[in-house]
Write a structure and sequence with these properties.
Oligomer: homodimer
Strand content of chain A: 35-45%
Largest interface: A-B, 51 and 51 residues
Strand order of the largest sheet of chain A: 5-6-7-10-9-8
Number of helices of chain A: 7
Order of helices and strands of chain A: HEHHEEEHEHEEHEHEEE
Number of strands of chain A: 11
Largest sheet of chain A: 6 strands, antiparallel
CATH superfamily of the largest domain in chain A: Chorismate lyase-like
CATH class of the largest domain in chain A: Alpha Beta
Shape of chain A: elongated
Structural class of chain A: alpha+beta
CATH architecture of the largest domain in chain A: 3-Layer(aba) Sandwich
Helix content of chain A: 25-40%
Radius of gyration of chain A: 24 Å
CATH topology of the largest domain in chain A: Chorismate lyase
DNA sequence: AAGTGGTCTAGACCACGTT
DNA sequence: ACGTGGTCTAGACCACTTC
C-alpha cells in the first residue's frame, strides 16, 4: 500500500475489528504509530479514527488512547422525511388538505411546553397528507405568531405551513421525539382507522433562541416504518 | 478576531443563517474567500462547512459551491439505548428475565428476512427487561448459531444474549427500523397491557458480511419515547 | 511530567461538475 | 478549460488525562 486515504484506513480498522484482530475493549495503536504503519500523515489517521469514534465504533480519550467500543451500535442517523418527497419518491402522488385553521389561545399544558406567556394567541392547524389520495399522515401544528411574523397573512391553503415556515422563519434548534400512541378521535377520523389503533408519532418542537416557533405532531398511518442502517 | 477555530466558524455561519444574512437557497462565499475573511487556513473552513453539511444545514457541490439548505432539519442522530444503562440512568434498578429459550427451525418468513437456507436451526429467546421490577421492554430474539458460534453453550440465563453477542460475535453492519404496532398476545402478557395497546417497536437485523447474526424485536411499554435534538 | 488525541497551518494536488 | 470542494502532507502547538 503506497499511500492510504482516510477511507482506506477506516476500512482496514473496521476489518481488524470484525476479524477480531482488535477486540472490543482493546486499545489500538496511537495515531503516530498508525501513521507510520500506513505511511501517511497523522492528520489522515486522525480523521479516520475521529469519524469512526463519532459513529460509536471507537472511543477516544487523550492520554489513554483509542479503544474498540464495547457496544458498537450506539448511534443511528435518521433522515427526517419531507413528506411530499417521501411520497413522491415511492411514485405516488402527494396531496395535502388543510382540515382546520384557527387562532386560539394556548391551552395551559401547551403554554408550558412551548415556553409561552399565559393565554398567548397561537395558530392551530390540522392537515391531512395523502398518498395517491389515501390518508398517509395527520399533522397537528401550533404556530407562535410572535416568532413567525407574517403567518397570519400567509395563504396556508396554498402553501403548506411547513414550507412557509422554512422559507420565512429562521430557527436555531429543535427537539424531536418518537413514540407510539393509540389513535385519538381526530387522528382516527382523519386517517380512517379505529380509535386506539397504534400510530407512529413524531413530535417536533422548533426554537429560535429562547422562543418557540412551532410545535407539530405527525401521526403516521398503520404500517409506517422509519428505517436506517448502521 | 485574531484566529478563528472551526467551531467559531460554525457558530458564525449558523448565526448568519439564523439572522438571514444568508437565506435558504443562497450560495455562500467559497472556502478561499471565507479563509481570508476569518484569517485562517482553508482546511479550517473546510472542516467547519463539511460538518455543517453533514447535519444538513448546508449543501455542498464541487464547482457550484456551498448553499444554505432549504430544509435544515434533515438528519437526526439517535442514541440507540443500552437498556440496562438507560434504566440505571434513571436511578432505577435493572433486571431481566429469560422467559423462553428454544432451538427451532426458522419459519419461512424469517428465513427469507434473515437470508437463511430452508429449515435452518435458530435459537429463539424471549426476554423481559424490567425497571424497578416493573415490565419495561419485551425482547424477542432469533440467533443464527452458524454465525454466532458458541451460543449453544452460552449460559444465557446469566449473561444476557445481547452482552454475549457483543463480546463474542463480530458484526459488520445492521438494519434498524422503528415503528408502532399494537401489542400481540406475547407482548401484552409480558408487559402487562391489553392486546392491541400501541407499542414502540425497534427491529434490528445484524449482519456479518452476507450472513445474519441475529434479529431482534424490542417492544417498549406504553409511554416510551426516543428523543433527540437538532 | 509525560503521553495521547485535538486542532491549526501553508501549501499542494486531485476529483468533480459546469461551461 | 476552469472553478469549486475533497483530501493529503509535514510540522507545530495545545488540551486533557493520567501518573
Amino acid at each position: 500500500m503506497s499511500r492510504a486515504s482516510y477511507q482506506d484506513i477506516q476500512a482496514e480498522v473496521r476489518r481488524r475489528i470484525q476479524t477480531r484482530v482488535w477486540k472490543p475493549g482493546d486499545t489500538i495503536p496511537t495515531e503516530v504509530d498508525l501513521a507510520k504503519e500506513f505511511n501517511c500523515a497523522r492528520a489522515t489517521i486522525n480523521r479516520a479514527l475521529r469519524e469512526l469514534a463519532e459513529t460509536g465504533l471507537l472511543e477516544r480519550r487523550r492520554k489513554s488512547g483509542t479503544r474498540v467500543s464495547l457496544n458498537p451500535m450506539r448511534k443511528a442517523t435518521l433522515d427526517i422525511p419531507i413528506t411530499r418527497l417521501e411520497i413522491e419518491g415511492r411514485g405516488q402522488t402527494y396531496r395535502h388538505k388543510l382540515l382546520e385553521s384557527q387562532q386560539v389561545s394556548a391551552p395551559d399544558a401547551l403554554s408550558a411546553e412551548m415556553n409561552l406567556g399565559r393565554s398567548q394567541m397561537l395558530v392551530h392547524l390540522k392537515t391531512l397528507h395523502m398518498a395517491d389520495g389515501r390518508p398517509f399522515m395527520y399533522e397537528d401544528r401550533w404556530i407562535n405568531p410572535k416568532a413567525a411574523r407574517g403567518i397570519l397573512r400567509a395563504k396556508l391553503a396554498e402553501v403548506s405551513a411547513n414550507e412557509w415556515l422554512v422559507q420565512n422563519v429562521p430557527i436555531s434548534h429543535g427537539d424531536i421525539a418518537f413514540q407510539a400512541l393509540g389513535a385519538d378521535t381526530d387522528q382516527a377520523a382523519a386517517l380512517g382507522v379505529t380509535v386506539g389503533t397504534a400510530l407512529f408519532i413524531i413530535d417536533r418542537l422548533t426554537w429560535m433562541g429562547t422562543q418557540t416557533v412551532t410545535k407539530v405532531r405527525l401521526a403516521y398511518g398503520p404500517g409506517y416504518r422509519m428505517v436506517t442502517q448502521i
